[in-house]
Amino acid sequence: MVLEGFRARVEPYVERLARPFLAWSPNALSGLALGLAAGAAALAALVRWTTPLLFLPVALLVFASGLFDVLDGAVARTTGRASRRGDFLDHVFDRYADVLIVVGIAVSGFANPVLALLALVSLLLTSYMGTQAQALGVGRIYAGLLSRADRLVVLALAAFLEFDWSVAWPWAPTLPWQRFALGGVTFTVLDVAFAYFVIAGQWTAIARARRVYRALPPVG
Hints:
This protein is an all-alpha fold. 67% of the residues lie in helices and 3% in strands.
């Protein structure tokens, strides 16, 4: 667990940010987060036919999507509108947002499609293990190397770097789409982010599965 470990510390700041949205429905905020993710995915896909400069709004939209995904829960708790139905809807929207963003980046041409597929599988397994624990009565599990907050921050940062290094700054690489080389194979920043998702995601999913298994009563 990385960013998730700071949840208690940032909670007061999240509550402040949520104040202007207290009149909103928590479900509307969840829908807005999904819409922002869809916008990020669409712009990322357009990079393939336009310019990598679009990665700047992609990074901003991914960050904004993550922010409103946090605010919906804060608004629900503060206004007493938290419900199982709202929690379920939030999880459904989160998974669709994950799929849309990863697929959009995969289409952009700045990420290896195989890495993108493996990263998506790892992200979905990580989330599944956490919610399955809740379904079995063990309680929602957020622990691990790759919480949702972690991956949204990593995606936003990677997208921003793709934009930054695609501009003709003095520090930008000569070939912005070839930044890292290993054994003659080149990688983009987004490739590295997806590779991290594969490793950290599988580690997190397995760790959560073991934790749930140990918490359940033995057979018989």
